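Quick note —
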Amino acid sequence: MASYFMNEGVFELPELGFKDKTVQLFSRPLGKGRELGLIVCRTSIPEGSTLESVVQSHVEHEAKTLRAFAVLDQRWVEHSGSRGIEIASRYRNANEMAYQRQTHLMVWDLWMLFGVTGPMSEREQCDTCLNQVLGTFRLRST
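Predicted structure written out below.
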């Protein structure tokens, strides 16, 4: 059995073929009904896929599902020894243009996505938040 750690405790996960698809979602009110959202997701990279192909599929999905979606910037990054792809984009939500920045990392055999979303007018605050999170990201040993 593998030990599974979370803030509240630890438990043993039976070896029954479970895959970790944990999503952690945080939000911070910005006033006037707006918020800054932070998400961390992880899932296995499909066999035969690369980080580049997974991220490309993810971006293509967002382009199809989010109104006025556009990539503003894309670059290679490294965090905690893991190479990744960072994408800044914008889209139109119900009320205004939204900004999102995502960092996609390949951690062991996992695809991890760290993302922040907020109003385009709060772009600097979004970037600061994600920079702080990624600046403190450290891998545990397997």
